[in-house]
Amino acid sequence: MFNLEKIHLLIIHSLMLLALHLVFGKKASFPYGIMVGFFPTAIGLVITALDFALIYLVAEIFENTTRIKIFRKWKEMEILKSEKMKSTKRFRYFNHLGKIGLVGVVIVPFTGGIYSAYFLGNMLKLSKKASYLLTCLGAILGNLLFALSSMGLLHWIR
Q1: Tens digits of per-residue pLDDT, 53-62?
Q2: What burial letters (b/e) apply to 2-39, b meaning 16+ CB within 10 Å?
Q3: Would the CA dihedral through 112, 60, 20, 29 be positive or negative?
Q4: What is the pTM of this model?
């Protein structure tokens, strides 16, 4: 028979993992998941699935924001930011890297993650499908990197 208290703890920790990932990204959700006893591979699979959904959600919100005032203002603000960014050194660097740069933004922690990658794809004039697929590829590789490094650290510590 299942222990009801353990099931409740599992649900609470899973919801907390998802909330941490939504707010802070994989740099916070992986350590939390390991701290509460989840296996790094399981964390990676859950986070990757969540990233796929988030990438699609961000794309849909950004593309279909003409009716809802708060989203329309957000889109206008992001367009203004992207116009300003086109003249920066960082944009020229990512423009030079092209599609690999888009994947790199998602892989490397503290570079903006999936939210920035979608807008970078727009600034690079990639199609919606190409931006989505490259951002998903970056999410897979980034989460794989986090899972493998977490497993290596756990093995090294034990």
Answers
A1: 988 887 887 7
A2: eeeeeeeeeeebeeebeebbeeebbebbbebbbeeebe
A3: negative
A4: 0.75
